[in-house]
Design goal:
The chain has 6 helices and 5 strands, in the order αβαββαββααα. By secondary structure, the protein is of the alpha+beta class. It has a single domain, classed as Hypothetical upf0131 protein ytfp, CATH 3.10.490.10. The protein has a 5-stranded antiparallel sheet with strand order 1-3-2-4-5, covered by helices on one side. α4 runs antiparallel to α5. It is globular, with a radius of gyration of 17 Å. Its EC number is 4.3.2.9. GO terms for molecular function: gamma-glutamylcyclotransferase activity.
């Protein structure tokens, strides 16, 4: 039995599972709202997927487009590997709106950058996936509301990435993602986002710096 499957089976025996968070659930304060048993394992890298954003009209709690992962050969998404008690599997599904058809869970193999293991993790992607790559939009093109995250949501992602210790180049790239300037003030206060800084305005950032392929890892 290979090491990945052994770790997965051991986690089940111990009544725990591994979860890969790449969006707002990289931030412990956010993750622990509904899943207090979650314990951060470290930084993970998911190969052959890209980070994207899409609003399907079902949930607008973040006042913009939520994150998703989309298969893309050669791309990669960094995030947080969590170990979570099985008793919080239901609450995690509820947070992700699984029963409402917002997100769907899948199992993926994630590279742990802290100890070089391959870990089988639960991860969620939007049921209504975007048909185009948001990062490929022309810098002068006006993206619709359904493709851009809110300022608040992007700040949560950036703070979680910094807290987890994601590669600095990836964090820099996250800060440059286009957002819609909308805020969710209650969450900004609750998650203490006042000190989180995003990149300069999109009109002042070159297109080359916004492409996902510019991020190495």
């Amino acid at each position: 039995m290979n090491k990945t499957r052994l770790l997965h089976k051991l986690s089940i025996v111990m009544n725990k599972f591994f979860y890969f968070g790449y969006g707002s659930n990289m931030l412990a304060a956010r993750m622990h709202i509904r899943n207090p048993s979650a314990r951060r394992i470290g930084v993970g890298k998911l190969k052959d997927y890209r980070l994207d954003f899409h609003y399907d009209g079902k949930d607008n709690s973040w006042n913009g487009a939520p994150a998703t992962i989309v298969p893309m050969k050669g791309a990669q998404v960094f995030g947080t590997i969590w170990e979570v008690d099985q008793c919080h599997l239901k609450s995690l599904d509820e947070q992700e709106g699984v029963s409402y058809g917002i997100y769907a869970p899948i199992n993926v193999t994630v590279d742990s950058l802290n100890d070089k293991r391959n870990i089988e993790c639960r991860v969620y992607h939007l049921c209504d996936q975007p048909k185009t790559d948001v990062h490929g939009l022309n810098c002068n093109e006006e993206a619709s509301f359904c493709r851009l995250p809110s300022t608040t949501y992007l700040k949560v992602i950036v703070k979680g990435a910094e807290e987890t210790g994601l590669p600095s180049e990836y964090i820099k790239w996250l800060k440059q993602i286009r957002h819609n300037d909308n805020h969710v003030h209650e969450m900004e206060s609750k998650l203490e986002l006042a000190e989180v800084k995003l990149a300069e305005a999109i009109s002042k950032v070159s297109c080359d710096r916004l492409t996902f392929n510019s991020v190495k890892g």
